[in-house]
Specification:
The complex is a heterodimer of chains A (258) and B (389).
Chain A (H helix, E strand, L loop, with lengths): L6 E10 L2 E11 L4 E5 L6 H9 L4 E10 L2 E2 L5 H7 L1 E4 L6 E5 H12 L7 H14 L10 E2 L5 H15 L3 E5 L7 H16 L7 E6 L12 E6 L2 E6 L1 H10 L2 H7 L4
Parallel strand pairs in A: 3-10, 3-11, 6-9, 9-10
Antiparallel strand pairs in A: 1-2, 1-4, 4-5, 7-8, 11-12
Chain B lengths: L3 H5 L9 H4 L11 H13 L31 E5 L6 E2 L15 H9 L2 E7 L9 E7 L2 E3 L1 E7 L4 E10 L2 E11 L4 E8 L6 E9 L5 E8 L4 E10 L5 E8 L6 E10 L5 E10 L4 E10 L7 E10 L5 E10 L5 E9 L3 H8 L5 H17 L4 H15 L1
Helix pairs in contact in B: 3-4, 5-6, 6-7
The chains are: A alpha/beta (258), B alpha/beta (389).
Chain lengths: 258, 389
Amino acid sequence: MSVELGLSIAGLRCEVDGKEILKSIDLTVEPGRVHALMGPNGSGKTTLALALAGHPHYVVTAGSAKLDGANLLSLAPDKRAKAGLFLSFQYPAAIPGVKVANFLFAARQAVKPGSDLTPAKFRALLVERMEALGMDTSFLGRYLNDGFSGGEKKRLEMLQMAVLAPRYAILDETDSGLDIDALRHIGETIAALRSSEEGRATGLLVITHYPRILRYIQPDVVHVMLDGHIVKTGDVELANRIEREGYDIVRAESGAVA
Amino acid sequence: MISSALRAEPLLSRAPSAPFTRLLPFADEYFTLEARTAALQRFFDVPSGRERPGRYWRVNLDAIDIDDLQLDPENGSVEVKSSDARVRVGEPPDCLGISAAAQSKFGALAMAFAHRYAFVSIPSGIDVEDPIVITYRVGEGALFPYTCVHVERGARATIVERVEGAAAFVAGIVEVVTGEGSEARFSALQVLDDDSRFFNTLAALPGKDASLELLTADLGAELTVGEIDVSLLGEGADAQIVSLFFPSGRQHVDLRSTVDHRVGGARSQTTVRSAANERGQGRYVGNIRIAPDAQKSDASLRDDALLLSPNAHIDSVPALEIAANDVKAYHGATVGALDAEMLFYMTTRGIDREHAERMVTLGFFEPAIDRFPAHLREELRERLAVRAR
């Protein structure tokens, strides 16, 4: 029996506090490919990300989401991560008292339990990935996201992705609030991950409001979301058009109600 | 050792009643039978001042009956270890009994029967590098430990007191007196088995310009009743109080701290972290008092409690009495459950729900753990982890 590879979302509807936010989403991210999901604020991009990760407030009312054939929607959030899903949060939670190093080790052990990663090897992996991100190793002794700047939080999200080497990663507005240097570091980390043996096949869903990050992560496919629907799908030229002309042109073409 | 001279003295105007005759074997060179008799009378006369908190609190602290106790001066043991020969161990410091510890109900009980002593004096000006460790152990029966530590002028030292054992009733006093410009850290760790009861009265008198850290961790006993009293009598003194406790199973913890700013220009910071699991019951009462002429006092009180089960309960009662007008005073308290967004975030990294809860709970205590001497931190984490399960 062959398994259909990909992060495959079909007919997905989702509501929050009784209000429908996603209105039938169809989207498949193939292994090793980069999909960009663009759209103005409030179009439902973050809702899709959190629904796929299993946030309890986001109630899926119809449709399916499969990760290499596994039914994500029937799994608790930790099982989804173990299946190979990673979400880089737009607003990562701060957890006082939990040190970055301990957290990363616990997460790595949970997600890749079979690997014979000794603490020393793990440390070496961390240091290597941190250098790529331009992060000081003093991060490891700090409490998770506690007192971190916006840029530091995003870099830590990328470090986690690099360490956990997921099969599919959703990057929710990883570019928001970053300066050009931080953005470049993140672009380089993603490039490094994708050139590593563990991360070569990682499929990416890059959620962004602005097309800027796409200069650093070249998308294979670009989707535009408006009001809970994917209204347009194209190649990188679609992103360039949005950068020049804004979302209004897509809105007009799709006939969506503003 | 029992002084026969004391025994020969008339004890009371009337024939001693049963509880008082039980004091006889305890009279010694430190506390006379008269002093003990007066203390026991206070225990009977003085109310605990502690109403039952919460509806699941099962113990009436005014109904503690000493008739059932196995009273024997031979019970338990004490050991004091210091690697520094300049530290004087075993001689009563000149500040013995100077505090008001024996005035409260349970302090009076502790003094009445005191029989295991840890006396430590750190001579002026010396810097003691290694921690001085006091260990009380008890197998069964009643134990009445009395610790008196004098950190003299300009001295520096770290002192750790451990109380451990099983099937015990323990009522103790700790007096910590520090001299001008000294720096001291006193940690009290109570890890009695869950079949024990623990009453502890800790009184501290930091000197002028002295820095004193008082750290307490109550992680054992089915019932813990703790009293921490710090009197700031010297200008420029800085007292830092850090307490943590974590009742689980059917444990009860009732902790009260009082910081009394009697003179101006002193600073105090009280930090309490607690959690309760299963049917654990807790209460923390934090008092800050600033006397009318204690101007330029700087006092803060921060108390955070975590409830991990629907049957767990913690009362948090901060109370500030400020009679001076030119002071800085802060207090804040929170009582709550684990944060759902923190747990969700951790589970999206593959960490299962229970492991995430344990990590967040331990993390909650970490800022308090971090204040303890390094060699105790891992033990504290392990003991807390058992309760967080």
